[in-house]
Structures are given as structure tokens and as C-alpha cells.
Amino acid sequence: MFSRSEVMQPFLGHSTVSGNVMEDLGVTIGKVHALTLLRSHAQKCESLMGFAHDDTSLRSLATDNVDRSATDPRDTIFALLGLSSYPESVTVDYSKSVRDIYVKATREMIIDTTGPSLNIICTTYRSDRPSDHDLPSWIPDF
């Protein structure tokens, strides 16, 4: 088993890690863990109360928020991931092009865990202005 300082040493670039840094890291990890548990508990409560999980699918969120705008077009998808019931379906990666993100997101919406559906490609999200993203015709311009 490794100690916390042994694990963090390569990331912090110090031969020794101070107690304060480790305490701060421990508190942060604890908060992230608590938020993860809280989200899981909230989803279980929603399920028990009969709320449809489709309300938080990426497909449903994208459909409901199509009129939103962002400075970086990739953020129209990335912003929804934290609200999505399956945020790991698309990875936040700003090194990828808008086209790559929209294609990946649309594929994930088609094979969504709430049930496969082509509804997302049947809905046209094309603005009046031409797109700079070189999107295939079946990909919505979110």
C-alpha cells in the first residue's frame, strides 16, 4: 500500500510533501467523494419518487437547451455533462474539434441508456448562418 505522500510526490514535484498540502488534498478528495455520494443518493431518490431518468439524459438535456449559446461551441455539450445522468458518455477535451465533440455527443444520444432513439437526428438544429464546423448532415449544430 502506498502512502498519500508517495502517491502525490510525482505530481507535486517535491521530494517531500508538507502536511498542509496533504491535508488540503485530503479535504478536497473528501468533498469530491461527498458530492459523488450526494448525486448518487439524489438519483436514487428521483427513481423512487417516479421521476423519469430520461429527463437527465444527454439527449433530453440537449433537446431542452438547444436555444442556449456559448462563446466556445463545445461548451454547449460540455455544460450539459454535469447535469446528465451519464456524464462519462462524452469526455471534456478542448483539444478535440467542435465537429468531433458534436459527432461523439450525437452518437451517445442515439445509443442513450434510456433506449436507442434516432429522434436527435430527426430534429434539425441548424442556424440561419453557415456553420464553420464542417458537420455531417445528420449531426445537429448545437
Provide the residue-averaged pLDDT: 74
The DSSP helix count reads: 6
What's the number of structural domains? 2
Counting DSSP E segments of at least 2 residues, the number of strands comes to 0
- Category by helix and strand content: mainly alpha
User: What series of H and E elements makes up the topology?
Assistant: HHHHHH
Strand fraction: under 5%
Q: Name the helicity range.
A: 40-55%
Q: Quick gist of this model?
A:
The protein is mostly helical and 142 residues long. 49% of the residues lie in helices and 0% in strands.
Describe the structure.
The protein has six helices and no strands. The protein has 142 residues and is mainly α. It folds into two domains: 4-48; 53-122, no CATH class. The longest helix is centred in the N-terminal third of the chain and has 30 residues, at 19-48. The protein is globular, with a radius of gyration of 20 Å. The chain starts with a helix and ends in a 20-residue tail after the last helix.
Task: Give the key terms.
globular; HetReg/Transcr_Mod; mainly alpha
Can you lay out the helices and strands and say which pair or pack?
Layout: H1 4-12, H2 19-48, H3 58-64, H4 75-81, H5 98-110, H6 119-122
InterPro entries: HetReg/Transcr_Mod
